[in-house]
Amino acid sequence: MAFEKKVxxxxxxxxxxxxxxxxxxxxxxxxxxxxxxxxEKEVNAKSIMGVMSLGISQGTEIILxxxxxxxxxxxxxxxxxxxxxxxx
Length: 88
Fold this sequence. Notes:
Elements: E1 3-8, H1 17-27, E2 33-38, E3 41-44, H2 48-53, E4 61-67, H3 71-85
């Protein structure tokens, strides 16, 4: 069963270029399959092209979804990264 959380993007530039790259690197550290759900789209959170294709801007609500042995840790760490560590 997957673990998921709704997260609002607070970064001024959204999830583009540098922040997207940082996010993907962070997601890639986990063994679980991790996806970002935005509207009708669902992409692999470990794919820079997939993440950037969503065009996620500041204030956007997304769903982070993970399935695998470290799913809960992955989502909690990625949520924390989005809220506190993501650079412009």
